[in-house]
């Protein structure tokens, strides 16, 4: 098997793993997340073996194809491939440092010197010696390390395998279709009145659409990502019809006649996802999606992917669509917005207690997966909760409690680096701008929602987010820099492609014609009266081969009226004299017009048999001949 086939196989397997991850309850159970981590680990192993095989065999072609010219055997990898490898190495180095610190937290041998004080208190209470660690729950920390390594592996594979434009496009399409399928399933179950998730009874949020998720806020995050991903094929299809300035009627006509099935599937996926997000009843999910759509709109204007007039029309249509969805499906969300429950007060109490836990151990943290234990230790009794609190409803604060402030900063730097690549591509790159814009919008949605909820902590949401960010970052690195005039004053665009700017501009004749292409004049015809009774018609070679020339060929002139070389020469000189006083730039000179190898014009008079014979006197009887200037003798 060739290396390119192996990389394609790994990429398709990666898409299958990510798209199927929401199916088993968002992979938020021990068996699903273990299977997910195992699958990603196997794919990483296969990819590493293929890269090692490529490095050991210098005569092997690159493992990943790209849009540029294929690299010959024995040559170096393409420049953009080396650039992606360098960025991947930098990100992988930071990620390894982060994972190493999390491992130190859970290891009694490495982190025993900074062991949590709770271990000494527990040993004194139990009367036995306990091996202390930084983490309050080492087993939970190792499980979280396994999941985080899987998330990073998905990003690395997407970054390395997604440099090909077609693969990136297929990756976005796969997530769009997967989100469409899950949203359709959730709406079908909801309107059918079946309160279940797969074959399990739906105990939490029975009135909300959650698809295969248990928590409605987590599904709102995933459905919002799917809606934003659907904008990539939608904008790709619409850009084919908005490259030229045209009326709305012409645009709708072209849309109805030339639109492909991809456009209608993308529209259906986006509308279905919007309805699903609305019916989840997640206030933060809807607000973060609206914020992401606003970021997407601003990104289109900044990257100049759309004209302002088209943007305004699209914004009005999108606003009308959202208003219609809210009118039809927003009753449940409106009730949620108007209710005065104790959710915000409870989350504020959780937040204040979590901040106290951060201040207790700000530098080393208290171990991944140990938020519940750390929260109860930090709670001084001022806040009373009915349930066991194991989530902070704020991913940033929870990560600061578990890993410490340095680990939180490093995590944000790693994610911010990929977002920064997409942002730079949106501002300074020519290709794949739409994927970068969507990636920045997805990062805005996930980042905003993570401040009030824990949707990104679901394995299905995390691997989907990492896949999309990896693909977008790869496309941002695998493009060429835009020329400076793109962001300066734009040159006027032509009304039509492959058409001359003026009637006197020469054009290239089509391949099927063997006669000169006619050029329409911008001035009145000053030539002598035409002796051809019918227009000259251009005939294609295919019609000539079929014998269809006689039907459209001009009528044949009589022999006595046929134009002679002298007549053609006189006509050309008469036109030159008529154009010369007006200063026409394209008027030829007499020397250029009269070739030295051309024979002298000989006047001719009609003969007795209808023919033409030369006249010895020099001028034909009954004809007015224009006297020509003396011609220079040939050198």
TrEMBL record:
What residue stretches are annotated with the O-antigen ligase-related domain? 269-410
Q: Where are the transmembrane segments?
A: 36-53, 83-104, 144-162, 169-192, 219-238, 259-279, 285-303, 310-328, 405-425, 432-452, 458-482
Do you know which PANTHER family this protein is assigned to? TEICHURONIC ACID BIOSYNTHESIS PROTEIN TUAE
This chain's protein is named O-antigen ligase-related domain-containing protein
The record's region (Disordered) falls at 488-635
Which species is the source of this protein? Answer: Vineibacter terrae
Q: An example Gene Ontology cellular component term from the record?
A: membrane
Where it sits in the cell: the answer is: Membrane
User: What UniProt keywords apply to this chain's record, in alphabetical order?
Assistant: Membrane, Transmembrane, Transmembrane helix
Provide the membrane topology annotation.
Answer: Multi-pass membrane protein
Query: Compositionally biased, Basic residues: which spans?
Result: 488-497
Principal localization?
membrane
Q: Which InterPro entries match?
A: O-antigen_ligase-rel_domated (IPR007016), WaaL-like (IPR051533)
What domain of life does the native source organism fall in? Bacteria
